[in-house]
Structure formats: C-alpha cells, structure tokens
Amino acid sequence: GPSGSADAFRRYRAVFSLDRLAANDPSGIKSRPFKVALKGADGQDREALLAEDFTTGRHGLAPGRELSVHRDERGRLMLATRPVRPIVDAMTVTAAGELVIEGTYPGEETAKKKVVLRHGVRLEEKELPVEIADGRFTVRIEPEAAPQVSGPELPLCPGRWYLFFRDVDAWDKSRDIPVTLRPEQVGELPLRFTGPQRAGGQPRAFTVDRREFDRIFIEPERMLGPDEHGAYRQRILREEYFQQQRELPLRDAVLYLSLGGKQFSDSPRSVHEELVRRGVPVEHIWIQDSGLPEMPPEARVVGWGSRECYEALARSRYVVVNTAIGDWFVTRPGQKVVQTWHGTPLKKIGADLLGSPKSNPAYIASLPHSYRQFDFVVSPNAYTTEIMSRAYYIEGGMFESGYPRNDVFYAPDREERAARVRERLGLPEGKKVVLYAPTWREDQRHASKLYKLDLRIDLAAAQAELGDDHVLLFRKHPKVHGSVPGAGRGFVWDVTRYPDIADLYLVADVLITDYSSALFDFAHSDKPMLFFTYDLEHYRDTLRGLYFDFTTRAPGPLLKTSEELVKALRDVDAVEAEYREKYAQFKRDFCEPGDGLATARVVDRMLAGGPHAAGSTDG
Fold it and tell me: Of 47, 72, 273, 487, most Cβ neighbours within 10 A?
C-alpha cells in the first residue's frame, strides 16, 4: 500500500507462473520480450517504473534459455526470455593499454565457446582469447595487435567492434550470442582509454560505448584532429594550407601512397625497398589511412587528410602512388610524381565505359587533368600501354617497364620469403595452398561504397572433398565486405586483411580468380590458375564489358559451378597440362617485360635528371 508522500515509490508484488512465460519459448538465439504494465483501479495501464536501487536479475529456464528481469533506458521494468547471455560487470584498462572485460556467464553455457570481435560494417572478425571459470569470463583486448582468425595480429581499424560468444565448432555467425552490459552500469560508459605505444606513431585513444541500451562496442578514435576533420576543414587545408606549403622549398623526401593509404604494399612498396637498398639519401614518408596496418620502420607515417600529409604532398621531391590523388592536387616544378597504377585491364575502364550503365561522365571528364599530375605512368605490358593511354586520356608518357610489384616472382630470395609468410600465417605443412581472390560485383551492393560478398563456392562441400590435403586462402576485394563462413576451422582461411597480396602469391600453389587483374600478375609465377566465372555472360554483356574474348584466351579453365571448381582442384595437374600452350601464349601477350628489373627501371627514371640520379654530384 502507499506510504509516505504522494511521489514516493510504492511497493508492488506480482506473482506469475514461469511455466506460462516460458510456454512455446523460441529456441536458439531468439529473444522474446514481454510488455509489463500496472493496471489501475480505473482500468488504465501505467508504466512499471523501477526504484533506483533495483537490481536486475536472471533466472534459468530450459537449457540454454533464461528469463531476464531488467530495466531499460528510462527505468521501466522489462521481462524477456532469451538465450543465456554473457553479461559484463567489470571493465578495466591495464598500464600497458590493454582492455580487460569481465562478466558472468552461467556454467554449462560456456563449454566449447570462443569470443569473436566483429566490425559493425565490414563484418570482419577477430578471435580473442577468453578465460572461463566458475560462471565468469575474462576477455583481454590488445587494440593495436588483435589476433586475426588467420594470420598476423593487426590493429583494430576504425568503426565499431562488437563482442560475441560463439560455439567453437560453429560454421558461421548465425548463432552468435551478443555480449551486453549489466543495466546498472550503463552510466559507466563511455569509457575512454589510451592504447599501447605503437611502433613509429603516437598511441591511439579508444572508446568503449553502447547502443540499443546495453550492447557494448569498442571504437578507435578518428585519426584526424578536430581542425582537420570534415569536408569544410579538408577544403580549407587543400585550398589554403596546401597552396601555402607549395611556396616553400622542396625537401629530399619520397612520399608513398598505396591503395589510398590502406596498405604498405604493391609497386610503391617495391620502389621504397629499392631506394632503401640503394641507400639513396631521402626521407621516406608513407601515407596511412585510419591507422591500418604495418608500415615500414624506416618511414615517417602521416595520416591521410592530415596537415602533415598536405605538407608532404606539397614539399616532397618525389611522390609515388598507385591510385588517383585527387583533382585538387597540382604537381609543382621540380617535383616528380610517379603513377605506378595497379592492374592490367581485362574489364573495361575509363572512357571505354562511355555509353554503358557503369560509365561516370564526370569522372571521365576529370581524367585528362588527373593524368597531367604524373611525370609518367607505369605500364606492365604493351597491351596496357595502348588501352590506358586511350581510356584515361594520358597525354604524357607511359613507361612500359613492367610492374615493380611483379619483380617478387623473379627475386632470388622468393623461397625464403615464402617460408616466412607460411610461418606467419601458420599454414600447415604439406598441404596444397589454394588462393581465392575474386573481384567485386557492381550490382551486389550494400550501403555507401561497399559491395556484398557474392559467395558462390559451397565451402562446406569443398572442405569435405579437399580438406584433408588442401587449405583455401580467401582474399576478398577491398571494396567487398561480409564475413567468410567456415574461416578458422582449418580449411578456409580469411586472409583479406593480410597486408600484401604478393606474399600470398608466393605461397599459393593454385590461384582461383575471375575477372580480377590478379590473373595477369600470377601468370608470372607459372603456377596453375582456375577461373570461377559463374556470371561471365552477365559480367561481360551487362555489367562491365571485357577487352578481349576471355573464353578463348584464358590460361586456365572457365568454371561455372562450385562442383566443377572442386573437381578441377582435385585434378589440377591434368588441367595444367591441358592449358600449357594457352598459358605460354598468355605470358607472351601480358607478362613482358618479365625479368625482375621493373623496379630498377622505374627508380632510375624517377631519379633521372635530379639531385639523386646515379652519378650526380649535387646531392
């Protein structure tokens, strides 16, 4: 009954049958919320608000299910039947910058469980070590070196990372149980902490926060400062700061940009390593976007879009890139800008897309200016020289040196490098390594600029057929997101985040691809290739269009179904013999020059006529 003043809390006692609540309870990972209301004498429903000191609780129902009694954002009473959840009740940060998350997870649920950290947008996953004892769990997160499901430990990339528990032998994410925060503790968030010291950079800040009331996530801070973030401030940096910096003298520095700052890889990496090998007296500066992954120890690293980045673009004597910089960039006198580009075109590009659904007239109109920025554009072969100069309106020189990145196939230490990569990935001895590297599909689209994982290989069937003596390394295109089912179970390895695909080419015994320009690079290896072209007609005739008849010139079989693909892998030696002649012709058409000297040619031309040219004395 009522006590004290009119606005004091009243105590109510409700008794209800658990059996009735749990009747027809959904099984598995579904939750079922109940609406709770108090009915007054006047027949009106009133919200059931909880006193401040009310403690939430949970009660076991059937195996794997529980009834939760808790409050929501506004302090209302909530009842739900749900899978037994791991609930966080303590978060601490160690002196070394490691986040420790602890909580309760009643006993029988925790057998054979692992903890997965999953990116909210990219769905990329990391597996974290977990300690479980007496109905409690402890997870430690090292944000600058989070373990991959396959491969090296890497920093958490920007975005929100959510925690889940998963059965050790689950095939995919469909039965994951989310980790939530004890409702009494939502007021402790956001929790901000500084991660560990990073090689060659400042420590980053991280935030633990929540959404949907009690779902917790970890988010790295943005790389840019408050005066650099957002379209308006970026415009000021480009139009004012960059222009001011261009008035200052050039510095003996080389600035590198690979795939928009996402990697230390590709031809810019080869140029960097050659300059270091020669001991050319220049500063090395790498542009990095959003704190991803390893950068070389002898380089200074600047964030894409930061003040230091604009200063380096304005004042470095040499700039080496493999994608566009931006139409605001103007090369200054005395500055050498080298465009190494990143692929032999099989699918149509640039102006050759005009009139097709994928053509972008504004982009095509900007091409002549974009390509005036470069002193020369590197070409891998005569075929590409002709297509690129036409499709990208390249007025200046194309330099047909071969791609620096493909020198790796001719390097005298390629076997040692392959052994290091195998060890780093932890690949099992004696199994055949298959690399699957498809391109993206323009019509398989998520929000923004990300494309869906269009997975047509039946991975479970492939594992049953090939798992004893093969491993499948799956590398998604950078524009594609979606988690790879079966990864981490011994057969499928998700190597999307592995820093440089060249390393993967070296360890692969077979490449499976489609219309990706990977095929032109891998042909330098003489190792067999299979083409999983389940949508060839659609891709060729509707989506992008191809430059030549792939069906007659491909250096390996074009396979339509997952079964055909598995069969070809089983019998790859026969396939190799059958395509020997076509492969040889393909190499003559697309792999010359192929002598391992492309990087040396590019570096010689970049330095020619400047203070660092061979034999120059004014350096």
Answer: 487
Encode pLDDT of 260-317 as tens digits.
Answer: 888 888 999 999 999 999 999 999 999 988 656 677 878 898 989 999 999 999 999 9
Which DSSP category does 146 fall into? Answer: B
Residue with structure tokens 């020189």? 397
Tracing tokens 């010139």 back to the chain, one arrives at 553
- Cα 582 to its chain centre, rounded Å, is 34
Tens digits of residue pLDDT in 542-567: 767 888 888 899 999 999 999 999 99
User: How far apart (Å, rounded) are the C-alpha atoms in residues 499 and 518?
Assistant: 16
Which has the higher per-residue pLDDT, 581 or 613?
Answer: 581
Task: Spell out the alpha helix ranges (H) of 321-428.
Answer: 361-372, 382-391, 414-425
Report in angstroms the alpha-carbon separations of 469 from 206, 359, 494, 507, 575.
42, 44, 18, 15, 18
Sorted by sequence, the CB contacts under 8 Å of residue 53 that are 6+ apart come out as: none
Tell me the C-alpha distance between 51 and 36, whole Å.
15
Contact indicator for 325, 362 with CB cutoff of 8 Å: no
SS3 224: coil
SS3 state at 83: strand
Q: pLDDT digit string (tens) for 465-504? A: 999 999 999 998 777 777 787 787 789 998 888 888 999 9
pTM of the full predicted structure? 0.82
Tokens of 559: 């396979």
Q: How far apart are the first and last CA of the chain?
A: 92
> Which of 493, 458, 499 lies closest to 478, judged by CA?
499
Quick check: 194 and 98 in contact, CB under 8 A?
A: no
